[in-house]
Amino acid sequence: MNRLDVVMFAMDRRMDRRIVLAAETLIGAGYSVRVFAPADGAPQAEPAWIERVKFNSAGLHGSGLSLYRLARDRLPRLRGLLRWLTWQLQRRPARLFEALFADAIAKAPARVYVANDLPMLPVAIAAGERHGGCVVYDSHELYCEQEFSRRERRLWSSLEAELIARADAVITVNHSIGRELSRRYAIAPPTIVHNADRFRQSARASAREGDPRERGLRASLGIPAEAVVFLYQGGLTRERNLETLVDAFQKMRGQRCVLVMLGDGALKPELEGRVQRMGIEGQVKFHPAVPQEQLLDLTAQADFGVIPYRDTCLNNALCTPNKLFEFIMARVPIFATDLPEVRSVIARYNIGLLGDTSRADTFAEGLRKAMQIAPAFKREWLAGLEVAAHELCWEREGEKYLAVVRALASRDDRVRQAEVLPA
């Protein structure tokens, strides 16, 4: 069985941009890479280095996970209850995920294993123990501080406390989460690798080849040329404050602005119904999700990118979502909730403004302010976005990721050489 340089484990149906960029960076540096992720609901066309695996049926037996995954999409209102029932039946998530990925672990000898988020950490550790090799924990978020029940938070926090010190290196997405991980688990400060996108020349400039107001988002959705377009892009799921965002546009009825919600998700039918009941179909438009390679061209046609997340849990409070960096790379000014890490980026580069998104009226007030001050500040915002795009790009962030893996791969080589040398 050939030994790979790097094996990554992920739970993604649609592979997260961060994982794809990290894998491409490693492959570009000459490493052999494979990403193992569930086959359930996966896209048809993906790179050859992504291997979709069918879960080991023993891992599903008695866990309730198959029921939860089915109901998560079809019965979203029962999601919280079913998630709780799942963990009542399966009290050790480490055992569950190790069992689900048992077949992948068996055929994945590698020098370095990467766990993408907390559920994959026991999987990567199990693979490392079975085959030898170092483990990287890439914490994409403060996983155990999501909007979970108290019991779930304790369960995941206990798992992270038990396993994080067994990783040979820890990577995370921003300084606030890095400090929190270091504080609560007494580990060395993680390496910070932001969720940046690849650098590209101004997508706004390329979108202007021909007037973007005559094509793309505007043409496909019937948006008037004079309307200011606010864009939300990403999953249409709960806990993202999307209901309040839609309600804010009811309070902006009659103003020359449109909200475009670009993406899909379990909440989409409910949001569409909400728009219809309020009679604001002319001000709130829905656009299906697009492949990553098309996203920035559409994003660049907006006047503002919206980040509506609220401080409803510590994970949300400390987030730096992908869309923050996608708006930057598309050179689109940002209107966002005042969250510490998001504020830090927007203030450092002067690329937009913050507002109170907790209620529809204050949200609408902030959006109106953005429209009012845009003529005076747009040139400054675009200049700041240009600087940010050069500094917060994957070409820089990926080098930090590569350095971590390179150091561990070299360590594994030295250990193996020592093992074969005569005493």
Task: Give the tags.
13 strands; seven-stranded parallel β-sheet; 19 helices; Rossmann fold; globular; 423 residues; 15% strand
Q: Could you characterize the architecture of this molecule?
A:
- The chain has 423 residues and is α/β, with parallel strands linked by helices.
- It has two domains: 4-55 and 101-196 and 394-420, Glycogen Phosphorylase B (Rossmann fold, 3-Layer(aba) Sandwich); 203-391, Rossmann fold (3-Layer(aba) Sandwich), CATH 3.40.50.
- The chain has 19 helices and 13 strands.
- The protein has helices spanning 17-28, 57-60, 65-74, 79-89, 93-100, 102-106, 121-131, 150-163, 175-185, 203-207, 216-221, 242-250, 268-278, 292-299, 314-317, 322-329, 340-349, 360-391, 394-420, and strands at residues 4-9, 33-38, 50-53, 110-116, 134-139, 169-172, 191-192, 228-233, 257-262, 284-287, 304-307, 334-337, 352-355.
- The strands form two sheets. Strands 3-2-1-4-5-6-7 form a seven-stranded parallel beta sheet, sandwiched between helices.
- Helix 1 (17-28) links the parallel strand 1 (4-9) and strand 2.
- Helix 1 (17-28) crosses helix 19, helix 5 packs across helix 7 (121-131) and helix 12 crosses helix 18.
- The chain is globular, with a radius of gyration of 22 Å.
